[in-house]
Amino acid sequence: SQKIEQNSEALNIQEGKTATLTCNYTNYSPAYLQWYRQDPGRGPVFLLLIRENEKEKRKERLKVTFDTTLKQSLFHITASQPADSATYLCALGDSGAGSYQLTFGKGTKLSVIP
Amino acid sequence: GAVVSQHPSRVICKSGTSVKIECRSLDFQATTMFWYRQFPKKSLMLMATSNEGSKATYEQGVEKDKFLINHASLTLSTLTVTSAHPEDSSFYICSAETGTNQPQHFGDGTRLSIL
């Protein structure tokens, strides 16, 4: 069965450092991958989308890589700030039937310590 | 742009009550909307895909008679939890897609508590 794993439930990092979150998947051939941020009691907020034929995407302090051979995506936040503290979700979009449906990982709760 | 509004944000009601949740795309038309359920420290679980003008597609294990979905216009989808029971208590979130294989934009969720 399809499986998505985000490396850890929680990640603590010092302010100013680069946070790296991992998303691994098995039994899946996604057409694209998305990263979302979710704050407590709120809906997810879209951050970045990367397609299967793209290796890397950047947006301000955020960078996403997508390795379809390793079946892995890395999400980086450079110069992290306490305001970056949140749960980050990766989501895979299948290229099969219902291609616009997303499957989410459980998320990694990032805490940036001042 | 791409704002999705969900209402109400919180509902507390007695067992046996039916509860309606609205999801609106405020600044774009959404042919397709999605309904998710999220338990604490768990991932979002897709319940159903709502298509404007047609019947919703439910995921395996989701009772369509229990969770009624209506997508009557390009900007509004509703989820009605019928005869709700305590086990239906959860965080329900809707989303809308601006186009196929485009990011989904989420509402802020509805915290449903059934006493």
Write structural notes for this entry:
By secondary structure, chain A is mainly β. Chain A has strands at residues 3-6, 10-14, 19-26, 30-38, 45-51, 56-59, 62-67, 72-77, 86-94, 102-104, 108-113. Chain A has no helices and eleven strands. In chain A, strands 2, 4, 5, 9, 10 and 11 form a six-stranded mixed sheet that branches. A five-stranded antiparallel sheet of chain A has the order 1-3-8-7-6, with no helix packed on it. In chain A, strand 6 and strand 7 (62-67) form a beta hairpin. Chain A starts with a strand and ends with a strand. The model of chain A has no long low-confidence stretch (mean pLDDT 91). With 115 residues, chain B is mainly beta. Helix content of chain B is 0%, strand content 52%. In chain B, strands 2, 4, 5, 6, 9, 10 and 11 form a seven-stranded mixed sheet that branches. A four-stranded antiparallel sheet of chain B has the order 1-3-8-7, with no helix packed on it. In chain B, 36% of the residues are buried. The mean pLDDT of chain B is 92. The A-B interface holds A 4, 9, 31-32, 34, 36, 41-46, 49, 89, 93, 98-107 and B 4, 6, 32, 34, 41-44, 46, 49, 57, 91, 93, 95, 97, 100-109, 111.
Keywords:
heterodimer, A: mainly beta, globular, B: 115 residues, mainly beta, 4-stranded antiparallel β-sheet
Rg over CA atoms of chain A: 14 Å
Provide the structure class of chain B.
mainly beta
Task: Specify the number of helices of chain B.
Answer: 0
- Cα(first) to Cα(last) distance of chain B is 37 Å
